[in-house]
Amino acid sequence: MNTFEIIDSPIGGLVLIARNELLVGLYHEYHSPEPSPVLLGLPFAREQLNLAEEIPPEGSPAVDREAAAEVYRLTSDWLRAYFDGTVSEPVPYTLLNGTEFQRRVWKAVADIPYGETRTYKDIAGALGNESMGRAVGAAVRANPLSIVIPGHRVVGAGGAITGYAAGMAVKRALLELEAAVIAGAAA
User: Which of 8, 10, 132, 163 is packed most tightly, with the most Cβ within 10 A?
Assistant: First the structure.
C-alpha cells in the first residue's frame, strides 16, 4: 500500500509517494493531471510511527511506516540538496506503472545530465524514430517522478520552454536553477 506526504519546496508543495522502502511518485501540488487517488494511497503521519498500525483494507499489504519515513527523509534531503544547487545521485525509486514505450522515454529523460536539455525530437531520434516527438511529449507528461526523472530538461525545438505538468513557470524555474548552478561551478 502506498502512502504520501506533502513537503514545501521553492517551487511549491511537492507530493512524495512511497511504497514501503521505495519512492514511487513525486508530483507538484498543482500537477496536471493530478495523480490518481489510488496511487496516492494513505496520508503519512509521522506522529503515528510509534502507534499501532492502522488496519489496511482487506487484501491490501500492510504499510511499513518506518521504511516509508526513511524514503521521505532521503527524498526530502535529496530535494533540499537539489534546490541548494548540490548535485547528488537520485534517491532509490521504482516505476510501478507505464507502458514499455513510456519506460523507454523515462529512461532517456533520466539520462539527461544536470544542467542540459534535450528536445522531444532528440529523444524520439534516440529511440529510433524522430517523428515520435508528440508521443515522447505525452510520455514525459505521464512521468510519475518529477525532478527525479527530470522532465523539465525536455524542451521544444530551438530550446523553447513548452508544456510541463507543473506549469511552464515551474519548468523555467528548474532550468534556470540548474543553469545558475552550472554557471557558478564554471566560475
Answer: 132
pLDDT of amino acid 58: 54
- 146, 35 contact by CB (below 8 A): no
CB neighbourhood size of 67 (10 A)? 15
Nearest partner of 90 among 26, 185, 46, 41, judged by Cα: 26
pTM exceeds 0.70 for this model:
yes
SS3 28: strand
| pLDDT one-digit tens code per residue, 77-103 | 999 999 999 877 778 888 888 999 999
Q: How far apart are CA 117 and CA 98, in angstroms?
A: 23
Task: Give the H/E segment covering residue 123.
Answer: helix 120-126
